[in-house]
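User: Run a structure prediction on this.
Assistant: Running it now.
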Amino acid sequence: MKFCYPEIKSTFDSDARKVNTIVIENQRLLRELLQDIHCQINGDSGNAVLSDQDSPLPISRNLELLDCFVPFELNKKALLNKLIGKLAKEAVSEEYYMETRELLGQIESYLMKLSQEVNCTVGFSNITEESLIKSVGVEIPEEYDSLGEKIIDYMELVYELIGKKLFLLYNLRCVMVDEETNMLMKTILDHSFHCIMIENHEYELLEFEKRYIIDKDLCEIS
């Protein structure tokens, strides 16, 4: 995938051998770029362009901006909805269909028996495999020893449940030590994830990083 913005001369290729880091020291440019990305994620128009094999891609469906790492939450609504949908699909597959039908029938029978114990008419919504799965509070475990491992697992889940995306990681290095950041970059490359990092100032250049700097005067240094 390639990402570009009209006010930045370079185009950034997430298929490169190193993870691209864009250091933007000019506050106005940084603010406008992030605002543009947010607008397009929400379905509005913007100037940033995302493409794959020279074909434009809608940013709203193909790019995710990760800008909150403390805490970093795996249980995002879009991801959980896709997970519930996949579990519901499995519930009616050939392997589980009969077991699912039997279980839903037992629950409906149980609820009808309970309703007979109260002095009023009780109605129930139609119980489906999806409503049953939602009712148990499906969630992804959040306990990790490493923030880097958690980010990688999140990317894997997005790829599996939603599809290929470009991840923009904003100001991750202010909360992650260099050694862990370097290992994260290596793992991103090993998994062929599409990722670009954006920072508002320079840190030490890492082994698996390719850096592009836009200073306060809008001079661009590669």
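The first helix runs from residue 27 to 41.
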